[in-house]
Amino acid sequence: MISARGWVHFSITWHLRPRLPSASPFLCSASPCSHDSRIPTPVIQPSAAPSSPLHISTLTLDLHPPFLHPQQPHKMSTLRHVLRPVPRLRPTTVAAARLTPSISARRNYTEFTPSPIFALTETEELLKESVARFANDAILPKVREMDEAEQMDKGIVSQLFEQGLMGVEIPEKYGGSEMNFGACIVAIEELARVDPSVSVLVDVHNTLVNTVFKTYGSEALKSKYLPRLATESVGSFCLSEPASGSDAFALKTRATKSQSGGSYTISGQKMWITNAAEADIFIVFANLAPERGYKGISAFVLEKGMPGFSIAKKEKKLGIRASSTCMLTFDDVEVPAENLIGKEGEGYKYAISILNEGRIGIAAQMTGLALGAFETAIKYVWNERRQFGQLVGDFQGMQFQIAQARTEIEAARALLYNAVRTKETGGVRAGEGFVREAAMAKLYASQVAGKVSGLAIEWQGGMGFVREGLSEKFWRDSKIGAIYEGTSNIQLQTIAKLLQQEYKK
Ligand SMILES: Cc1cc2nc3c(=O)[nH]c(=O)nc-3n(C[C@H](O)[C@H](O)[C@H](O)COP(=O)(O)OP(=O)(O)OC[C@H]3O[C@@H](n4cnc5c(N)ncnc54)[C@H](O)[C@@H]3O)c2cc1C
Prior knowledge:
Belongs to the acyl-CoA dehydrogenase family. By secondary structure, the chain is of the alpha+beta class. 47% of the residues lie in helices and 16% in strands. It contains 17 helices and 13 strands. A four-stranded mixed beta sheet has the order 4-7-8-11. A four-stranded antiparallel beta sheet has the order 5-6-10-9, covered by helices on one side. Helix 10 packs antiparallel against helix 11, helix 12 packs antiparallel against helix 16 (471-478) and helix 14 runs antiparallel to helix 16 (471-478). Mean pLDDT is 84; it is low at 1-107. Residues 204, 237-240, 245-246, 272-274, 317, 325, 480, 483-487, 489-490, 493 line the site of flavin-adenine dinucleotide.
């Protein structure tokens, strides 16, 4: 981030009981790189906040711009190590270089060798390791039990909060982990490799609910709800209704404003609401001015226990069965005026923008699921099951399928991380943001998840079909990818519309 004074601000992270900063080799070697006396020694400040529960601590470093000059000799390998991820950590610079046709901007961009699209920042890499460990140690032993019981384990929800996974992007001042969007996606993907149900709980909470508060909430709403969302209260995002699914803005839930203007009354029903059984905080879309059509839609914060608000039927589902999906009823629920999110009549804009982001989360869930299914199966065919005197995975007919499946997973991951970086950089096509990338990533990842998890069952024969392992569950869980946060047809419609805008005369 370039500050008003023209200084460049970096974050350095390290993992588990850091020995920094007092005897830091980074600190010791920072000064010698100031060969030019006009360049001040870097200012290094340990973060005031305690280590996050993820044991990733942050150190902020301010460097004067000449440090970034390509000719500036800085022998310090640690510094180069920190500087290299800059295009990804602070990608706005890169986006600007792509969009601005000035020679200097182009030169800045080409100073860096582009990395593979899957390359992660150090923070993301550390998070990935910690989430993978947590998923395998704490979640995996309970996956089958939760699926059979169609119930999310309360202990796991508590641990998700303790691990800092429920406030990945929430600023530290509100009790969150203050990481980037990429980190959130990495966490969702890693969780889905083990359990897509836990993954979607984290996904909806972070990419939809937290993001709404962070992006559109007043300071009062942020101060009241973000600390709770980061540490103890699950959130739900409530848009769909019995009569409005793909046509989401045909919603019938109504909001009326009191004469004094001090409150709103909400009446109606929501359907298919993820996390509803665990949630305390609900973002509810209701139409305040039906005569204005979708332009009357506004967003409100409701809390469990408000008079007239009931969480009704929990759906019995094909897949992601541990994830709760419920019907909600609002019978003249009175909410204080300060619980309006943003402005009256702008709810549809918020929903569109947030769901674009949410789709990348679902793409991550589906990519993680595909990887989880793939890995489960190949461990079996390449290490355990023998037929005709050899491991079944050694038959060329199997090897080719495995190679094809992995290629498709990699392609899905490429689309996913391209969408992540496009979102973080603000987009590469003027006015389009990351809509196309998000739609393509979700569409393709859900197709790959369905295909690979289906094949993974076949590769294991009867053992893939029974409920002893997790393969049949991955396949059941994969179906939802083509349905929620916009069906596959809706993604195709979005992509086609954008292509038409680009090519149709
Ligand atoms: C497990 C689960 C969890 C969910 N979680 C949430 C949540 O937390 N919050 C929330 O608000 N909603 C949630 N949803 C709702 C979800 O977003 C909707 O189910 C989805 O948008 C599709 O709506 P629908 O089910 O009414 O299908 P419909 O809209 O009735 O679609 C039926 C079929 O028609 C096709 N179709 C519809 N319109 C078009 C078109 N214009 N062109 C081509 N084909 C079309 C669809 O692609 C689909 O194949 C969840 C749903 C499920 C199943």
